[in-house]
Amino acid sequence: MAETQGKVITCKAAVVWGPKEPLVIQEICVDPPQKMEVRVKILYSSICHTDLGAWTGVVMHAPRFKSCFLINIYNRIVESVGGVKDVKEGDYVIPTFNGECGECRVCTNGVSNLCERYKVDPMKRLMVNDGGTRFSTTTNKDGGSSQKQRVYHFLNTSTFTEYTVLDSACVVKIDPNAPLKQMSLLSCGVSTGVGAAWNTANVKEGTTTAVFGLGSVGLAVAEGARARGVSRIIGVDANASKFEKGKLGITDFVNPKDLTKPVHERIRELMSGGVDYSFECTGNVDGWGSTVLVGIYPTPKTLPLHPMELFDDRTITGSIFGGFKPKSQLPNFAQQCMKGVVKLEPFITNELPFEKINDVFQLLRDEKSLRCVLQISKFLKK
């Protein structure tokens, strides 16, 4: 890739110009990486509910569409670097929306995975180094050659493009022998769900759990619980079609639409009193019990919680990226997935070419897909 190093790359990208507007496949310019940045070639990408919430405007703390921006997630090859030592040209990497600088107070202790400088920030649209963007259109929005427009970054990743530039803190090197299509799942949903079970809740063998919401994150929680030896896993979802997809470790299914009583009463009946852990993965704040909040929540939403409810040996906590420190912990998690500790194949339910990106949004809106993988660029395995 030496022929492109230090030069502006012109490539195709999917750009959105306003809320709910179709993404447009168009040419953009991608600048070279600056200090502590990495420019990478995208192999695979996908769409998660965070993207969908930002695109529809439901997640109001996402960037507003004052101009265009790219959306997010998945898997790539390093094209060039700017003063970075832990990755080099040709390395296989995955991006993370939650970074790890390795130097700040948070990164050097084990209490949190929210790096002081590179933690997830839905409002961040510019690079840390100089407050600029590395993307611009090759023409203006109407097709003219004057007044080219900047294209903004999103959630530290911006991967609906053949090339992107990332802060090095958000780039994780992985084994080049890893199945890259499956490894792309570790950038977001699977790590978030499995980590919520392993790191945030630290579920124990022989315990019981309930998972509210059987999308990709909820099913990843269930898969993480299964891998840890949890004895019974109750899956709760109002969409009956998800129950077939939900065979990833789930032992019991509950559809609230089929009940004449509250869900928590049904769970108490099934479990003779309740479960040891529950995970809220729908973005609905009406959870109960010892609960880990994993979903993305519409704005504004508040918890309907009385402080006295926590006195009965109950806890409630949130989880970002499953509590994983990306650069120091994700490579080991990838190795565990390669060994089959966590099964990744069932999460990929659809595959489409990059040009069909708007169809992927529709699949997600219709709840007909867990993860649809887009092949952004073709590549030759080393």
Please, could you describe this protein's structure?
It is a single chain. Helices cover 19% and strands 22% of the residues. It is α/β, with parallel strands linked by helices and 382 residues long. Helix 3 packs across helix 4. Strands 3, 4, 5, 8, 9, 16 and 17 form a seven-stranded mixed β-sheet that branches. A six-stranded parallel β-sheet has the order 12-11-10-13-14-15, with helices on both faces. It has helices spanning 49-56, 180-183, 189-200, 216-227, 242-245, 263-271, 326-338, 357-365; strands at residues 9-15, 24-30, 37-45, 74-82, 92-95, 135-137, 150-151, 163-167, 171-173, 208-212, 232-236, 252-254, 277-280, 291-293, 316-318, 348-353, 371-375. The relative contact order is 0.16. The longest helix is centred in the last third of the chain and has 13 residues, at 326-338. The protein is built from eight helices and 17 strands.
